[in-house]
Amino acid sequence: MADEFDPALEARLRVAFGSEVEGRRVGLEQDHVAARWHARRRRRLAASASVLAAVLVVAAVAVAIPNLVAEWQSAAQPSIPPAAPVATYHELTALLPADAHTGVVRGEHHGSPGGVGDVTLDLGAVGAGSPVAYALSCLSEHVTITFDTGDTTPDTMDLQCDDGLAHGSLDWEAGPALVSVSTPSDDSWRLVLATGTGPARSPEPFDELRLAAQRARTTGGVTIASGEGPDPEATGALLTTDLGAVGAVHDIQLVIDCIGGGIDVRVMAGDTKLAGYQTACQPSVDIQSIAVASPGPDARLVVVADHDVTWRLLAVGPMPGATAAP
Amino acid sequence: MAAATSGAMTFDALRGRRPEVLADLMDRHGLEIQNVAYLILRDWAMAEDVLADTLMVALDRGDTLRDEAALRRWLLRIAVNRAIDARRSSSRVVQLRLVPDREARRTFDDDRIALLGAVERLAPRMRAALVLRYYADLPVRDVAEALGTSGNTIKTQLREALAQLRVTLGEADDFLEDRHG
After folding, report:
1. Where are the alpha helices (DSSP H) in A134-224?
2. Which of B112, B126, B140, B173 to mutate against chain A (most A CBs within 10 Å)?
3. What CA–CA distance (Å, rounded) separates A171 from A26?
4. Residues B22 and B108 occupy one common structural domain
5. Could you count the other beta carbons within 10 Å of the beta carbon of residue B114?
């Protein structure tokens, strides 16, 4: 071996080192390290602010001395607010996902000490595409971000300023919108938003739903209804879709993939609701079995969902001839 | 394949400086970093501090890492530098070490204690080179990269370290022979 110098002593070292740490576990808690990291980051932000403030003081003194006489003779001028020690755009952009390259809007506000009221700043437009990635640095508790599509009530969200720096993804699927940010006027913030982090997700195709149903249902089953929404022709905020008759079955397995708010599935006999299932949309396919207490041949499956919820649903019933649930 | 994918995710999270990567780094590399630091420092509390510092520095500078394959080496480099710094700042503290019991027969433990005691008498960077080579099992070129020097320098340091160990162990052997009769 080219890198061996004294094989016997090297072997003894390997054994000694190994046995010295044998059975040892990591003594640290991950939360402890994370807390220390956040605390250190806060200290650094504060230190940056102190340095910046000191520089500004020196600069202000340097400017003030030559102009002292003129200052005495003129009315007091409003002071220049110090730049807030929020993270730079470069730092914020580094927090965005690597594929968030398109549709970037950004903005900043440097609060004036003693400012009153709120200030709203328009950042520009974001296009269709979900999610919207964001990176935010702010010195207040939170900032309020508003998405205005122009045809509905503007959608507002509060972004928390965790330790002065936050980033993540906003669940925004409604399409192009004007974005604005509101904060108290004495707060400072800097924000970068990016769409184009990949195409908006569509519900899984029916074949995938069937596979999911097969995996979940060990006793077999047949598809008794299926459908998707929203119907592009439909109008209104809340849409009802009739998936047709499901027959006299006692137990129905619902396989749902939806994106947006939530979905309400009902088994109806005329105006009578025999069974139902309401759920918020999950990040993965949702499989749920519902029991129909009094099934009848005229039972139908109906889906009620907001117009902006995209969904695909499969209903699976027992194999023909299977024993009905008691 | 799963591990490779997970490693890539860790790398991406580190590059994105996302704090949640800490748990993964600790799972994958925490024990080795802690043990390397301990073998240089011979103090578990300080080794834990080095581990915490290493993870925080990694998170701060994760965006500078270019090569996923270099992650382990990069972390060890941070840890070793931190451990050497910590060792220097604590060098005024006199640490008491276990010595073999007078009545005990000469055992494997004697050998280990003598050997580790001899390692402790080496210069910090030499000790770090030994730990990276014979505990972390890094090839010489990786030890060199971790310590920011050339492969030839590391080879020289390792040769010199082993020579010093032989001398120290010879003295220790004489000492133990006297004690055990």
Report:
1. 206-216
2. B112
3. 37
4. no
5. 23
Task: Name the DSSP letter for residue B22.
Answer: H
Cα(B1)–Cα(A317) distance, integer angstroms:
38
Place of tokens 């992650």: B71
The Cα A303–Cα A312 span in angstroms is: 10
Residues B67, B129, single domain; the answer is no
Counted domains in chain B: 2
Q: Give contacts of A13 with chain B, Cβ < 8 Å.
A: 115, 119, 130, 134, 165
Please give the structure tokens belonging to residue B181.
């009769």
Q: Are residues B138 and B173 in the same domain?
A: yes
Domain end: B57, B72, B96, which one? B96
pLDDT band at A150 (very low <50, low <70, confident <90, very high): confident
Q: Among partner residues A3, A12, A37, which is closest to B139 by beta-carbon distance?
A: A3
Are B148 and B60 members of one domain? no
Whether residues B8 and B66 share a domain: the answer is yes
Is the ipTM of this structure higher than 0.90? Answer: no
- CA–CA dist A101, B61 (Å, integer): 22
Q: How confident is the model at residue A323 (pLDDT cuts 50, 70, 90)?
A: low
Return the residue of A nearest to B24 by Cα: A30
CB B120 within 8 A of CB B161: no
Token reading at A273: 């609701």
Which chain B residues have a beta carbon less than 8 Å from that of A94?
16-17, 63
- Which structure tokens are listed for A63? 């400017």
Please indicate if any CB of chain B lies within 8 Å of the CB of A78. Answer: no
Alpha-carbon distance of A49 to A165, in angstroms, equals: 15
Grouping H, G, I as helix, E, B as strand and the rest as coil, residue B18 is: coil
CATH of the domain at B164: 1.10.10.10
Single residue among B96, B130, B150 that ends a domain in this structure: B96
B131 and B103 in a common domain: yes
C-alpha Rg value of chain B to the nearest Å: 19
Residues B131 and B46 reside in one and the same domain: no
pTM greater than 0.80 (yes/no):
no
> Which residues in chain A have their CB less than 8 angstroms from residue B12's CB?
98
Element (DSSP H or E) covering residue B88: helix B71-89
Position with higher pLDDT, A249 vs B174: A249
Q: What angle do CA A250, A255, A258 make, to 5 degrees?
A: 135
Structural domain including B159 reads 97-181
* pLDDT tens for each residue of B1-51: 334 446 778 888 888 888 888 888 999 999 999 999 999 988 888 888 899
Q: Which two tokens stand for residue A166?
A: 């936050």
Contacts of A100 in chain B (CB under 8 A): none
Q: Which residue did the predictor score with more confidence, A325 or B73?
A: B73
- Do residues B138 and B176 both lie within one domain? yes
* pLDDT, tens digit, 9 for 90 and up, residues A170-196: 766 666 778 888 888 888 888 888 775
CATH number reported for the structural domain that contains residue B71 in this entry? 1.10.1740.10
